[in-house]
Amino acid sequence: MKQLSYFPILAVAVGVATQVGAQPAPTIDPGAMAALDRVGTYLRSLKAFQIRAAITAEVVLDDGQKVQSDSVADLLVNKPNKLRAEVTGDRQHRLFFYEGKTFTLFAQRMNLYATTSAPPTIIELAEKLNKDLDIDLPLVDMFYWGTPKSTVGEINSAIDLGPSSVGGVTCQQFAFRQPGIDWQIWIQNGDYPLPRKLVISTLTDEARPEYTSVYTWNLAPSFDDTAFVFDAPKDAHPISFAQVKAAPTSTGK
Amino acid sequence: MNRFTSIAVALVLSCTASFAQRANARSSVNSSPSGNASANRGANANANRNANANQNTNVNRNVNANQNVNVNRNVNVNQNVNVNRDVNVHGGYYNQGCCYNNGGAAVAVAAAAAVTAVAIGSMVHSLPPSCSAVVVNGTTFQNCGGTYYQPQFAGTDVNYVVVAPPK
């Protein structure tokens, strides 16, 4: 009896070992790359949409211990130049408003906000926020995929992991590697190739913190343009954005 | 009163300590991380600490089960303090009309005393207790016992820079 159960386990172990051993030759599955292209093309074809993302992000403490931080991001988008986002986490609640001309960040609980002029498209806004203000626009990948600014060109390994269900939706799971990150995406099967889940492992810290995001989509949102306009409450206080210090990281601008 | 003050100081310090994080998970595939830990967080200085030695030892990854013993290590407790930070500030703000100080002389004396304690230009993630909002020329300040703090967004965090008393 013991013998019988022993052998299959051994076989599995050997199987895993061979897979791991096969690591040195990175493979790029053209099918996986094509699937990513399809996502990009489809996302670009969308005009207005709403996404709710359930996010778990790991934070590495100084001693290497990892802790999780959960949040929910709600995004309403009317391309190319209107966006509203609300990010609700345990420690932070923020609203993002962009109506095509200005960007406002609003800390509702503290009743503080700051406004700055904004470029004419969402993707340019994302770049400006990232570079100048140290702010990551929520779910920014949804605006990069399918554009020349996407980093798909950096991918050096792409594999198709087969069917996988996300919240009852049948998807195909893919895994990619590129400098600094390993990541996985679950793409909905069928005519609507939407990302349903994204996992990013950051390799630049040895603890490899992970970011997981599960998406719910609404492709026919109802809204009007006031949704994107920040209307400051009477008792709210305007403050400023701290500019990113150029010194430590940037290598020429 | 003195005792209360020292407790408050301790609280602020522990808040700062809770920011002792060295890395965040990247949240985007296409966009490289913005400032990440360094820009927003309080004095870290620990970045170099771990000397890479472990990196090769992938084998250790399985041992992580034992590391979980550390889970209780208070870190979460400190983070909750940050939650209070939002709330405290909130309270500070809305005591409507509280904040326009006419008692110039008294404030000036307090400021002179406080300047020695908190250097102008230094940055904190949370305010000491008992602050009141002051708006000068459209800019919002927090007057905390004569020390003036100017709130700002650093990334999406709110922090406070100690400034000279606004005129």
Structure description:
The complex is a heterodimer of chains A (253) and B (167). By secondary structure, chain A is an alpha+beta fold. Chain A has one domain (28-225): Lipoprotein localisation LolA/LolB/LppX (outer membrane lipoprotein receptor (LolB), chain A). Chain A is built from 4 helices and 13 strands. Chain A is globular. In chain B, 34% of the residues lie in helices and 20% in strands. Chain B contains 5 helices and 6 strands. Chain B has a 5-stranded antiparallel sheet. The model of chain B is unreliable at 1-17 and 36-116 (pLDDT under 50). At the A-B interface, β1, α3, β10, β11 and β12 of A face β1, α2, α4, β5 and β6 of B.
In short:
The complex is a heterodimer of chains A (253) and B (167). Chain A is α+β, with helices and mostly antiparallel strands and 253 residues long.
Which labels suit this protein?
heterodimer, A: 253 residues, alpha+beta, twelve-stranded mixed sheet, 40% strand, globular, B: 167 residues, 5 helices, 6 strands, elongated
CATH architecture of chain A: Clam
| Termini Cα gap of chain B | 29 Å
Largest sheet of chain A: 12 strands, mixed
Q: How much is the average pLDDT of chain A?
A: 90
Number of E strands of chain B: 6
Helix and strand pattern of chain A = HHEEEEEEHHEEEEEEE
